[in-house]
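Review session, final week

We close the course with one last complete record, chosen because it touches almost every idea we covered. It is Transcriptional regulator, a protein from Streptomyces carminius with 161 residues. Go through it on your own first, then we will talk.
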Amino acid sequence: MSAETFEVRSIATVVGGRKEPTDDFWGGTRAVIRLHPEYPVETLQGIEEFSHLTVVFHFHLVSRSEEHIGVRSPRNNPDWPETGTFVHRNMRRPNRLGLAFPRLLKVDGRDLHVTDLDAVDGTPVIDLAPWFAEFGPRGDVRQPSWPTEMLRDYWETPEQA
């Protein structure tokens, strides 16, 4: 079976927040997810009732040449095990898609004001939805120790650095 290709278009754009991607210190980062004008404001009706969103976005600053297919240590740290492309949650993925769960602060027309969105100014948003707790992981969650070590400072604020 060959790989299927399909076209998607962005529904919104990230406005504000960080200008450059970084590995850590995303805590407290505020931005706006601005819905494109072709989507009526009614498409957001009721979203203000939710505390968090699920946001799918495109790592638009990463070129195809920066993709990494294969095995490497996370953040190239030899203390962490070599793992495959689909074990990493970074921007060097084949389709360069990111997934985030920012807190929704307020809604102003087509503008969704959020915090803790780890996408930069100008990022195309492919899709968004409210976070439903019922869609979170069921049962016990397990993972090796290296993600916890690697992400220790991820949600710290820049001032805490």
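Two points worth writing down before the exam:
Strands lie at 12-15, 30-35, 53-58, 71-72, 83-84, 97-100, 103-108, 111-115, 124-130.
Residues 12-63+70-133 form a domain with the Elongation Factor Tu (Ef-tu); domain 3 fold (CATH 2.40.30.70).
Good luck, everyone.
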